[in-house]
């Protein structure tokens, strides 16, 4: 997220579609996202965490869920294996 914060076009929102996480891990993730929102993005962006059940997971399904929940005009889809370079 630090690299994303350095992009020329700043994100309006982040939509995180999560599977495999327990309720405890989702709680930890929510706390982490609040810290990121405050420290990296100075509260200038929003975060939406969308948990899905394991049986529903696939990359296309997760991407479609994220796009459906997003409010922005432009959408960038990434995953845990992607790093922005510019």
Descriptive overview:
The chain is built from 3 helices and 2 strands. It has a two-stranded parallel sheet. The protein is globular. It has helices spanning 2-5, 23-39, 59-69; strands at residues 13-18, 46-51. The protein is an alpha+beta fold and 86 residues long.
- Give the DSSP E fraction (strand runs of 2 or more residues): 5-15%
* Residue share in helix: 25-40%
Give the C-alpha Rg.
13 Å
Characterize the main sheet: 2 strands, parallel
Number of domains: 1
Q: Would you tell me the overall average pLDDT?
A: 87
Key terms:
86 residues; 14% strand; alpha+beta
Short recap of the structure:
This protein has 86 residues and is of the alpha+beta class. The chain contains three helices and two strands. The protein has one domain (2-69).
Helix-strand layout with pairing:
Elements: H1 2-5, E1 13-18, H2 23-39, E2 46-51, H3 59-69
Parallel strand pairs: 1-2
């Amino acid at each position: 997220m630090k690299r994303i914060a350095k992009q020329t076009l700043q994100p309006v929102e982040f939509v995180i579609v999560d599977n495999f996480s327990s309720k405890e891990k989702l709680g930890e993730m929510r706390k982490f996202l609040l810290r990121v929102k405050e420290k990296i993005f100075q509260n200038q962006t929003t975060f939406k965490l969308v948990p899905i059940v394991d049986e529903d997971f696939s990359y296309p399904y997760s991407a479609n869920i994220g796009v459906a929940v997003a409010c922005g005009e432009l959408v960038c889809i990434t995953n845990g294996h992607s790093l922005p370079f510019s």
